[in-house]
């Protein structure tokens, strides 16, 4: 699946990952190639454009993580953008089938794999969720299609509605509903007629069936190999009938994969399942992470970058600890601590995580310590020069005035901040000395 798209993208990134440093131009030209690869995979132009923009925004200004090449990092950014583009619903595999008997309407063009998918889903519901399923074919124009569903039903051990010659699709749908109710079924699936192209009659028939069945889910089955056409078909079906999700079939083939990427972006409808072969088990819920991995074919790089990012964080913590042990704690360190606290939900957030701290809150309020204080303190630090942050001892009266004015605050607040920095520095030093990294190491884990 996705062979060609994956190959193209791999080529682009192979070149990138081999280079040491990466210039903005390198990224730009690589992204141009990614765009061509996407278009060749039949991803629609607006989607490709949007996708590239997303990657560019993600890449710009992002610090390159040590121990991976910039190219590898771009791969990760592309991967994340793919996942984002592909993600359509939180739990695509969960079908709405409460209130039995729940009707599921299956629609799609002839040959898309509709009947096969109906049976695959029925088998899944039966085996994974223990549901009793009834399947009914409404394809009155093609008796062979009705036979096909009956054969598949026997094969997977799922009941099918007996075929009655001369009945129209609406009557069959009604009979299926009655039968499902009487027979105590959890779900009944209506496999509607397909045609080679969308036409008035097909739509009218599907709409009539929809109106009597009132389906909980209307799943559109489309052939993933048809690329942009699949997306057009989905748009049209959704406009005319309304669908709750898409099943992309033939994703086992070496299709161009573009349909998957464009589908949600263009139609706004989530892909719920992908068909991966002719066998009855060859169906999977749609997982953006997995599909993105297959499209890129570079899962290794993605996890490498993830790991590198984690290592960097650990390394930073280690470095900081060493500085603290030597009694080095400047305004940059303090700023980092303050920002960390902000991230954890401010003073209140940090307090709420510590047992028994509720009482302290009242005292803090009295002392004027609140969440705004954090932002004020950070503003003060931002107002210092690089030199001043690294060495707060430089702060004499005139500098203090300048800094306080820069932050729109009083010098007295700056003095409080300086005191805090000194006290925290002392505390860090003591903690650091308590056995090589003892407490602090624990605290930083
Ligand atoms: P329908 O006309 O839409 O009902 O299509 P069918 O269910 O009869 O499927 C048409 C053909 O496609 C059959 O030979 C199926 O076995 C095949 N098919 C269906 N889904 C898939 C799939 O996901 N992968 C592959 N390789 N073949 C499939």
Automatic annotation (TrEMBL):
Its EC number is 3.6.5.4. Keywords: Cytoplasm, GTP-binding, Hydrolase, Nucleotide-binding, Ribonucleoprotein, RNA-binding, Signal recognition particle. Composed of three domains: the N-terminal N domain, which is responsible for interactions with the ribosome, the central G domain, which binds GTP, and the C-terminal M domain, which binds the RNA and the signal sequence of the RNC. Its main location: membrane. Involved in targeting and insertion of nascent membrane proteins into the cytoplasmic membrane. Binds to the hydrophobic signal sequence of the ribosome-nascent chain (RNC) as it emerges from the ribosomes. The SRP-RNC complex is then targeted to the cytoplasmic membrane where it interacts with the SRP receptor FtsY. Interaction with FtsY leads to the transfer of the RNC complex to the Sec translocase for insertion into the membrane, the hydrolysis of GTP by both Ffh and FtsY, and the dissociation of the SRP-FtsY complex into the individual components. GO terms for cellular component: plasma membrane; signal recognition particle. This is Signal recognition particle protein. The gene is ffh. NCBIfam families: ffh. Residues 270-283 form the SRP54-type proteins GTP-binding domain. It is found in: Cell inner membrane; Cytoplasm. Part of the signal recognition particle protein translocation system, which is composed of SRP and FtsY. SRP is a ribonucleoprotein composed of Ffh and a 4.5S RNA molecule. One of its GO terms (molecular function) is GTPase activity. It is a peripheral membrane protein. GTP binds at residues 108-115, 191-195, 249-252. Belongs to the GTP-binding SRP family. SRP54 subfamily. InterPro entries: AAA+_ATPase, P-loop_NTPase, Signal_recog_part_SRP54_M_sf, Signal_recog_particl_SRP54_hlx, Signal_recog_particle_SRP54_M, SRP, SRP54, SRP54_GTPase_dom.
